[in-house]
C-alpha cells in the first residue's frame, strides 16, 4: 500500500459514524465520534463519483477554506479522508443553528443576547475577510451554535478568495432574502460588502423574529428591499443604474428604521443602517463594525453560555449531565427524550428570570437601555 | 516533517484580532509545506529508499532474482523528471490561456505531490494533467473535463479523474497556496511610493523582468524553503538590485537582504530546465524500474487487484452477517432504536 493510502486508512480509523442525521443532494451527514476520545463529531460524506467533472466545486471550496481558517467563530474542520468514491469531512459537532433558535417561539431574546450573536458573527466574518475569503452564503441557517453557546460560521460551499482586479465573479450567490441589491442588479465585481448586507438582514431578523426582506423572486426581492429601505437615488448609490441587470422597480419613499424597530436603541439602528447602506463602498466593514459603539454600550453582550437555547439543546446537555452524575430519581427517567421547556426553565440561573415574563420581544416599549 | 511552529503563547481565539502573528503563519503552507534544506533532503531520500525497497520486493515476489540488475532512479533523477513536467504545465497553461494563478497553483501541487510519492509509482506525465485540472477548480477557474481533455492529445477523461483523489490526498486536501507573483505585485505597488520616486518606465521594466524570474523560481525548491515575499524580493533583486534594496530600506528590512541573496543564487542556479537527452535517459530507465503493481495487466497488478477484491469480499460478508443478526435478534416492534440506526448507517456506508 502506498504511503498516502496508508495515511488515509489511518485517518479513517480515527472516526466512527454512529447514525445518519441528514441527507442533501450532494452529501450525507452523520453523527459520529472520535474513536480514541469519544468526542462527538459530524461527518459530512460527499458523494464524488456522481460528478462527471470529478471533485465538485462546493466540496473543493469547503475543504480549501476550512483547512485554512482556524477561529473560534468558524466551524472547525477536524479531518478529511476519502473512502472509495466519497470524500468525508470531519467537522466539529454543533447542536443547532440560529434559524432554529429564531423560530423557537418559546425563547425570548434580550437585546444583550442579540448583541452577543452579532459580535460572534462579526468576529467570524472579520477573520474570513482578513484572510481574503468571501463567504457568500450567510443566513441564520448557516450560523451554527455550539453547546457552549459559541456561534460559528459554517457552509463554505460558495466561498471564494477575493478576485484579482479585472476578473469577474458570479452574481448568483447568497440566498435571496440575504442577497444585497448590487448582486440582484448583476454586479460581477464586488467585495466583502456583500457579506455585510447579509449580516444586516440577520441582525434585523433577530429583532423581528421573522425574515426581514422575504422576496418571492429576484425581482420581488428588489421591490421588497426598496419598500423597506426606500428606492436608492443616484446620490445614494452613484452608478447603480449602469449595473448589468439594472431595472427600475418603482419609487418607494425612505422610512426611518425606527418605525419598524421601535424598541431598538439609537446605536443598534445606527449599526443596522450601516450594514444596509446601498452603496457597497460605504457599507461598514466587519472590522469597523466590531468597534461600533453598539458593542460598547449597555447592555453588554450576553456571555455565550447564557444565551437562549432550544429545547433539544437543553435536553442534550441535560442528558450529558445525567450520564456523568447520578440519575435523578425524581426525573422522568432515561426513556423520555426531551423534557417540556417549562420544566427545563427551572434549571436556569437567576439572570434568566426575566425571560419568563414576556413571550416575545415587545417593540411597543423603548428598551430599558 | 514540516517546520515546527514557533510555540506561541496560547492566544484566546476571540483575541485573534489583537495578536500580531502574521496571517501567513496560520496557513497550511507555512505549517506543512515549509522545510529546512536538511528536512527537504531527508524527506526525499527516505521516500526514494522506501519506494525502491517496496518495488524490489514486488519484483522478487513475481520472479526471484529479477530485481538484481535493475537500476532504480535516484531521488536527484526523480527531481529532474518532475522539473521537466513543471515546464509542461506552463506550456499547457499558455495553450488554455489560464491565468497565472492556475499555473502557479498547479506547479505547487505537482511538486508537493512528489514529496509524498515517487515517480516510480506515478509518472508525472499523468499527475501533471490531474494537478492542473484540480488547480483550475481550486482557484475558481473551472473548465469542464471534456473541454480539458479534448484539447490535450491522447488524453481520456479517465486519465485525469483516476488520479484526482490520489493527488488531493497527497496534498492532504490543502488546496490553498500563497503565491510569489502576488507578493511581487504587492512590492511593485509599494515601490511606486518610495521616498525618492522611481521613474515608472524603470519600475515597469523591473516588474516585467522580475515576473520572468518568478516563473524560473517555480522550477526550483525555493517555495519549500522560503516565504513567498522572500522569493518575490529575490526575483526583483535579480531584475533590478538597486530597486530591491531601496524598497527593503524603505520598509526597514534591509537586514534580510542576506537571505534574499541566497534565494537569488538558488533561483539562478537551479532554475534550469533539464536537457531533453538527460530526461529521456531517465525516462528510459524508469520504464524498467516502474512499480509493476501500477502497470495495468502485469502479474503484480492482477495480484494486487485480487487482494483488494478479497478484502472487500470479507468486509461485505461481515456486514451481511451483522444485518442478518440484527434482523434475527431484533424485536419485531423495533424497540432497539439505536442499534437499528446503527445498522442503517452501516448499510449506507459503501466504504
TrEMBL record, chain A:
Residues 307-369 are annotated as: Disordered. SMART domains: S_TKc. One of its GO terms (biological process) is positive regulation of transcription elongation by RNA polymerase II. ATP binds at residues 21-29, 44-45. Gene3D superfamilies: Phosphorylase Kinase, domain 1, Transferase(Phosphotransferase) domain 1. It is an enzyme of class 2 (transferase). One of its GO terms (cellular component) is transcription factor TFIIK complex. Keywords: ATP-binding, Kinase, Nucleotide-binding, Phosphoprotein, Serine/threonine-protein kinase, Transferase. Coiled coil: none annotated. One of its GO terms (molecular function) is RNA polymerase II CTD heptapeptide repeat kinase activity. Residues 15-295 form the Protein kinase domain. It comes from the Eukaryota. The active site is at residue 137. Its EC number is 2.7.11.23. Residues 348-362 have a biased composition (Basic and acidic residues). Belongs to the protein kinase superfamily. CMGC Ser/Thr protein kinase family. CDC2/CDKX subfamily. PANTHER family: CELL DIVISION PROTEIN KINASE, CYCLIN-DEPENDENT KINASE 7. This is [RNA-polymerase]-subunit kinase. It comes from Dentipellis fragilis.
From TrEMBL, chain B:
Residues 87-169 form the Cyclin-like domain. InterPro entries: Cyclin-like_dom, Cyclin-like_sf, Cyclin/Ssn8, Cyclin_C_2, Cyclin_N. SUPFAM superfamilies: Cyclin-like. Keywords: Cyclin. Residues 328-351 are annotated as: Disordered. GO terms for molecular function: cyclin-dependent protein serine/threonine kinase regulator activity. It comes from the Eukaryota. One of its GO terms (biological process) is regulation of transcription by RNA polymerase II. Belongs to the cyclin family. This is Cyclin-like domain-containing protein.
Amino acid at each position: 500500500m502506498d504511503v498516502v493510502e496508508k495515511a488515509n486508512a489511518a485517518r479513517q480509523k480515527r472516526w466512527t459514524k454512529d447514525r445518519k442525521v441528514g441527507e442533501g443532494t450532494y452529501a450525507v451527514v452523520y453523527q459520529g465520534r472520535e474513536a480514541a476520545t469519544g468526542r462527538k463529531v459530524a461527518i459530512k460524506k460527499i458523494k464524488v463519483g456522481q460528478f462527471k467533472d470529478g471533485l465538485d466545486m462546493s466540496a473543493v471550496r469547503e475543504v480549501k477554506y476550512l483547512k485554512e481558517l482556524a477561529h473560534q467563530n468558524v466551524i472547525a474542520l477536524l479531518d478529511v479522508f476519502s473512502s472509495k468514491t466519497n470524500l468525508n469531512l470531519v467537522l466539529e459537532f454543533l447542536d443547532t443553528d440560529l434559524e432554529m433558535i429564531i423560530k423557537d417561539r418559546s425563547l425570548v431574546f434580550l437585546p444583550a443576547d442579540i448583541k452577543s450573536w452579532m459580535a460572534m458573527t462579526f468576529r467570524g466574518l472579520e477573520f474570513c475577510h482578513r484572510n481574503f475569503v468571501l463567504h457568500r452564503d450567510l443566513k441564520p441557517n448557516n450560523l451554527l451554535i455550539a453547546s457552549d453557546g459559541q456561534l460559528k460560521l459554517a457552509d463554505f460551499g460558495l466561498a471564494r478568495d477575493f478576485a484579482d482586479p479585472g476578473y469577474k465573479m458570479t452574481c448568483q450567490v447568497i440566498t435571496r432574502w440575504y442577497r444585497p441589491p448590487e448582486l440582484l442588479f448583476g454586479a460581477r465585481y464586488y467585495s466583502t460588502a456583500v457579506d455585510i448586507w447579509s449580516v444586516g438582514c440577520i441582525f434585523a431578523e433577530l429583532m423581528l423574529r421573522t425574515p426581514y426582506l422575504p422576496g418571492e423572486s429576484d425581482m420581488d426581492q428588489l421591490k421588497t428591499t426598496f419598500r423597506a429601505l426606500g428606492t436608492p437615488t443616484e446620490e445614494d448609490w452613484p452608478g447603480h443604474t449602469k449595473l448589468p441587470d439594472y431595472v427600475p422597480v418603482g419609487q418607494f419613499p425612505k422610512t426611518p428604521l425606527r418605525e419598524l424597530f421601535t424598541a431598538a436603541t439609537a446605536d443598534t439602528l445606527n449599526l443596522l443602517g450601516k450594514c444596509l447602506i446601498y452603496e457597497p463602498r460605504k457599507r461598514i466593514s466587519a472590522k469597523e463594525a466590531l468597534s461600533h459603539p453598539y458593542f460598547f454600550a449597555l447592555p453588554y453582550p450576553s456571555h455565550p453560555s447564557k444565551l437562549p437555547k432550544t429545547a433539544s439543546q437543553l435536553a442534550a446537555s441535560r442528558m450529558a449531565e445525567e450520564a456523568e452524575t447520578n440519575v435523578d430519581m425524581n426525573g422522568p427517567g432515561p426513556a423520555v427524550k426531551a423534557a417540556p421547556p417549562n420544566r427545563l426553565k427551572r434549571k436556569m440561573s437567576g439572570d434568566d428570570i426575566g425571560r419568563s415574563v414576556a413571550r416575545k420581544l415587545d417593540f411597543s416599549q423603548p428598551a430599558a437601555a | 516533517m514540516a517546520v515546527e511552529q514557533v510555540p506561541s503563547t496560547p492566544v484566546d481565539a476571540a483575541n485573534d484580532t489583537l495578536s500580531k502573528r502574521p496571517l501567513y503563519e496560520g496557513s497550511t503552507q507555512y505549517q506543512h509545506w515549509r522545510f529546512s534544506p536538511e528536512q527537504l533532503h531527508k524527506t526525499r531520500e527516505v521516500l526514494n529508499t522506501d519506494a525502491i525497497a517496496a518495488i524490489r520486493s514486488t519484483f522478487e515476489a513475481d520472479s526471484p532474482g529479477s530485481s538484481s540488475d535493475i537500476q532504480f532512479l535516484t531521488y536527484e533523477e526523480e527531481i529532474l523528471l518532475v522539473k521537466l513536467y513543471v515546464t509542461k504545465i506552463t506550456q499547457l497553461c499558455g495553450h488554455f490561456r489560464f491565468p497565472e494563478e492556475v499555473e502557479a497553483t498547479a506547479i505547487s501541487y505537482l511538486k508537493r505531490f512528489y514529496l509524498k510519492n515517487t515517480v516510480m509509482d506515478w509518472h508525472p506525465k499523468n499527475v501533471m494533467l490531474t494537478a492542473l485540472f484540480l488547480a483550475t477548480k481550486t482557484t475558481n477557474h473551472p473548465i469542464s473535463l471534456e473541454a480539458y481533455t479534448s484539447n490535450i492529445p491522447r488524453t481520456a477523461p479517465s486519465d485525469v479523474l483516476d488520479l484526482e483523489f490520489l493527488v488531493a490526498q497527497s496534498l492532504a486536501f490543502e488546496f490553498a497556496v500563497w503565491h510569489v507573483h502576488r507578493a511581487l505585485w504587492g512590492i511593485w505597488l509599494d515601490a511606486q511610493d518610495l521616498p525618492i520616486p522611481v521613474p515608472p518606465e524603470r519600475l515597469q521594466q523591473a516588474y516585467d523582468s522580475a515576473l520572468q524570474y518568478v516563473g524560473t523560481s517555480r522550477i526550483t525548491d525555493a517555495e519549500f524553503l522560503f516565504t513567498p515575499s522572500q522569493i518575490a524580493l529575490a526575483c526583483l533583486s535579480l531584475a533590478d538590485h538597486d530597486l530591491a534594496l531601496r524598497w527593503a530600506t524603505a520598509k526597514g528590512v534591509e537586514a534580510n537582504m542576506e537571505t534574499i541573496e541566497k534565494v537569488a543564487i538558488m533561483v539562478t542556479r537551479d532554475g534550469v530546465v533539464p536537457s531533453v537527452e538527460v530526461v529521456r535517459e531517465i525516462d528510459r530507465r524508469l520504464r524498467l524500474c516502474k512499480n509493476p503493481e501500477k502497470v495495468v495487466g502485469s502479474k503484480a497488478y492482477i495480484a494486487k487487484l485480487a487482494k483488494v477484491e478479497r478484502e472487500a469480499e470479507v468486509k461485505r460478508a461481515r456486514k451481511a452477517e451483522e444485518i442478518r443478526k440484527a434482523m434475527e435478534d431484533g424485536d419485531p416492534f423495533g424497540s432497539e432504536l439505536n442499534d437499528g440506526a446503527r445498522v442503517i448507517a452501516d448499510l449506507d456506508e459503501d466504504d
